[in-house]
């Protein structure tokens, strides 16, 4: 809009002052100036605000969650902790006094530094210079327990308890070591974590190991040296009584042997599927016969696990040493979810494949013939001389590697983030163990035979570990694997997904289940089995003669499979195929491979409606035959019947206001149109109409209402409220005092 005024000194010479404004305008002016001042102050204060990402392990679910807050530099740690406390809705679960804000190392998953006062302002903290690059953590302690002190530069290490007598290792648990902390101080902390074991501080022996190098921590007053950037430290702890220097040397020699054999051991968390009777029956998976499983393992590859007496016993309670490690809730908060499984109040059951309650060193021995531990071989314990043992070497594939189930836990679905996973298992395993042997050991935990479950990487659940001879060398501590129920593929078998087709639904494809097809299998036998599975798993009861199987090509139903055809012979099929189960509601009409089935809908412009889908079966891929059959079924004469081929993905839904004019309607089939169906699979979609019907007359209000309704139905959102074709033009102003053009100039 163009605004202008006329200059008139006689009328505009005396401007109105603020004092001459009416009272209501003076009040409005005062409010405007106050708002401007408050906005200016808010803008200046906003410049002093910064973004903070804060993590917290939720008390109930143990799930690590992060929130973003925007404090000011002059806010205190206590004020920001209170804001995060409210954002996480922790009221009623924990007390605000039991929460504090600390810096956090997300990569190492540990608290980096704590502060001795909560009234610290962010601008006064030691990390003020790099506060924007720091992660923070809301630490929650147990009520009545003092907060732990975390000094900058400390590390989190894995702690293992070593039993010298039977060469047994338990753990790991996580523990924090601060810079400058002496061996005696670490021992004192370990004593407080194990009050029920009556361990004397003088009897504790510590060995720090990193990158296969071990260091004796035998001088109590010497600070422990470590690299704060390294995350692979392991602390081995043993409690033994020594009488002289020879005993001391013997103890450390024994610990070294255990550590050397333990160098390949990792702790892996395995997510287990539900194995209740209902789930197994729905998947047609028989439960594991434990007696048959024991016999098969004992007659198998000679794995040392088969000689463990614990295979023949029922699951025993978890015998992991509770409380071993940093038991304060402050350090608990920095543990990963897998570590928390060991420290929690309900560790669940423990299945000891190599039972830690066994006194036999055979259960824990992991050495090869070249290992120094061979010197300590005991014929009475092992029962065979060492040269007759099945040791692992380059030519012998009989795997005798270590495997032990530490704990199996079941959690309530309401208490975990991923509600599809309720069973978890932690295993201690040698990285040289193959996937095939790992599956054998997991049979008793999963509850089904190895041929009925698969192992996947986690969280990348699409990558299945199919190479049974591949080892676990790429696994690290606390890595996760996912177990899914389902039969393992045999030779000439392919796995895929089965969908149900509902043509008139907005979501026409409903996933049913995975299915395995063998090369040479007939479509008839596959259809019978699929119908049985659909009835058993989803209560879908379809008669055999009133359904069909067809190919699913991306978002479209495609080629129809005939009962007499065979997969791989007549039908080319690959692994991870997708197939459709279609309910016809009538007897199958397509019986020859040369026939074609077409989806059609009738457009009724007088009522602005489309009829539901129905199929037309053609003997030949000919447009003239399609037009003739549509004319017979609809009663529309051929010379008044128009057809339109729909190119959009199935179910080809569109705005009903666009059907009449936006489609390419075919009235007369020319030479080019005759080839429209040739080379296409079943499942093409056509609309047809009676050309004699006229479009319903709509008022602008009706058209707008229908358009809004259609956009909402199709998930579209239109914000247009004006016509884009209208253009604004500039306003021209002509003044009378400009010199007029003379006739001569015009003539020129």
TrEMBL record:
Which Pfam families does its entry note?
Ubiquitin_2, USP47_C
Start-end of Basic and acidic residues biased regions = 697-713
Instruction: Pinpoint the Ubiquitin carboxyl-terminal hydrolase 47 C-terminal domain residues.
Output: 497-734
Chain intervals with Polar residues compositional bias: 304-319
- Composition-biased stretches, type Low complexity, lie in 326-336
- Where would I find the Ubiquitin-like domain in this sequence? 429-475
Q: Which InterPro entries match?
A: Ubiquitin-like_dom, USP47_C
The segment annotated Disordered runs over 299-341, 353-395, 697-728
**What protein is this chain from?**
Uncharacterized protein
